Amino acid sequence: MGLSYMLGQRHQEHATGTPYEGGIVSTGTARIRLSVKFYLVAMFFVIFDLEAIFLFAWAVAARELGWTGYAEVLVFVGVLVAALIYLWRGGALDWGDVSLGPRSIR
Q: Rounded to the nearest 10 degrees, how much is the dihedral formed by the CA atoms of 95, 96, 102, 105?
């Protein structure tokens, strides 16, 4: 690395030291603190997206599963509805006081 440094080209253009990413010059800091609710929404999305996948798989095989499979999917949906009600009553889905800026830290 030392030999490369000594033999390499040295130039200092106008744009050499400026950060350039995607054609947009960055402003401010990259260390913006976001509210925990943004991460909660991401987790809720993953959980309820997986629910949709499981329900689709059940719907494809519904005739082969019979009434036992129907009862199991009712229990599955019941647990998910209970979890959604728990989250709703706990205020995890309340977005009334959150804005999309770094000043929204609470």
A: -90
Q: What is the pTM of this model?
A: 0.54
Spatial separation of the C-alpha atoms in residues 52 and 50, rounded to whole Å: 5
Instruction: Give the 3-state secondary structure of residue 46.
Output: helix
Residue 84 CB partners (closer than 8 Å, separation 6+): 48
Residue whose pair of structure tokens reads 């991460």 in the numeric block: 39
**Residues of the chain below pLDDT 70:** 15-26, 96-106
> Whole-number mean pLDDT of the chain?
79
pLDDT of residue 67: 94
Task: Please state the φ and ψ torsions of residue 49, each to the nearest 5 degrees.
Answer: -70, -40
CA distance 85 to 95: 16
